[in-house]
Amino acid sequence: MKIYFFNKKVFQNIKTTSKKGIKPMQAVTTLTSKELSDMITLEVQNSVKDEFKRKTHELNNAEYMNKKDSAKYIGVSYNTLERLAREHNLPHYTVYTKIMYKRSDLNDMMSNLKEY
């Protein structure tokens, strides 16, 4: 099966002139379904990588983080973060019903833990 691209529109298996007068010979690019599948797969993979980089950058630059992101930031489980926060009196901030931790407070706590 061939896929034809005309001005960002996709037509499959065009054999004669369409209603709009577009002829198959006017195709800008012709791809097989395998080539199209490969292109889509590559584009999705690149989009996922870009989104992962963006989210990682946001996480690394956020001043305040929720519990889940805070646990990921310091490399512990959610439950371990809660235990550490209790044991080391980690200051927290409540935004509506969410508990947030400040990046600098997490860094200080981790620095103090490494001294033991």
Structural overview:
With 116 residues, the chain is an alpha+beta fold. It has two domains: 2-59, no CATH class; 63-114, Multidrug-efflux Transporter Regulator, Chain: A, Domain 2. The protein contains four helices and six strands; from the N terminus they run βββαβααββα. It has helices at 33-61, 67-74, 78-87, 103-114; strands spanning 2-6, 9-12, 29-32, 64-66, 93-95, 98-102. The strands form two sheets. A three-stranded antiparallel sheet has the order 2-1-3. The chain has a three-stranded antiparallel sheet with strand order 4-6-5. α2 crosses α3 (78-87). The longest helix has 29 residues, at 33-61. The protein is elongated and about 65 Å long. The termini are far apart. The mean pLDDT is 77.
Number of helices: 4
Query: Strand-residue fraction?
Result: 15-25%
Number of strands: 6
Mean residue pLDDT: 77
Largest sheet: number of strands, sense, barrel closure: 3 strands, antiparallel
Strands of the widest sheet, in order across it, are 2-1-3
- Principal-axis shape equals elongated
Spans where pLDDT lies below 50 across 5 or more residues? none
Helix/strand-derived class? alpha+beta
Number of domains: 2
Radius of gyration over C-alpha positions, nearest whole angstrom: 26 Å
User: What distance lies between the first and last C-alpha atoms, to the nearest angstrom?
Assistant: 66 Å
Helix content: 40-55%
* Topology as a string of helices (H) and strands (E): EEEHEHHEEH
